[in-house]
């Protein structure tokens, strides 16, 4: 068994696509219309385009438990997911220079360094460097 796709709920797929590609550096992999206002939209790491895909999944507009869960995580500052990077401090500086807001600056925690940013699409995302 292996991971092929992970879902990240987003409030606006087009805005999310721009953020995840223009700011984070992912590349669009799949873009298939599903309904008038949603699509199967995935991005992948530029360095591993055959690796796991991130599904920029439209936040359920009419499923209150999912909306409540996403909002509760966001308001509590809890990351929805995390991405590994080679150097958290370097990535932090790069993303700050692009206008990305961090709620947690690079912080060493045992065997990792983490930082947490707002993806502008309803989620906190953590970046992590293994020491």
From TrEMBL:
Domain VOC: 2-130
Keyword Oxidoreductase: yes
The organism's place on the tree of life at top rank: Bacteria
Key words of the record: Dioxygenase, Oxidoreductase
Molecular-function annotations in GO: dioxygenase activity
Gene3D superfamilies: 2,3-Dihydroxybiphenyl 1,2-Dioxygenase, domain 1
PROSITE patterns: VOC (PS51819)
Keyword Membrane: no
Pfam family for this entry, one: Glyoxalase
PANTHER family linked: GLYOXALASE/BLEOMYCIN RESISTANCE PROTEIN/DIOXYGENASE (PTHR36437), GLYOXALASE_BLEOMYCIN RESISTANCE PROTEIN_DIOXYGENASE (PTHR36437:SF2)
Record's protein name: Catechol 2,3-dioxygenase
Organism name: Flavisolibacter ginsengisoli DSM 18119
């Amino acid at each position: 068994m292996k991971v092929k796709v992970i879902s990240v709920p987003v409030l606006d797929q087009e805005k999310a696509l721009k953020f995840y590609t223009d700011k984070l550096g992912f590349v669009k992999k799949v873009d298939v219309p599903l309904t008038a206002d949603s699509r199967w939209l995935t991005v992948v790491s530029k360095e591993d385009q055959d690796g796991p895909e991130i599904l920029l999944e439209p936040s359920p507009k009419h499923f209150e438990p999912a909306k409540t869960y996403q909002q509760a995580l966001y308001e509590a500052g809890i990351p929805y997911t995390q991405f590994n990077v080679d150097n958290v401090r370097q990535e932090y500086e790069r993303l700050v220079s692009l206008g990305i807001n961090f709620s947690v600056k690079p912080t060493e925690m045992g065997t990792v360094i983490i930082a947490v940013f707002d993806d502008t699409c309803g989620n906190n995302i953590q970046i992590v460097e293994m020491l």
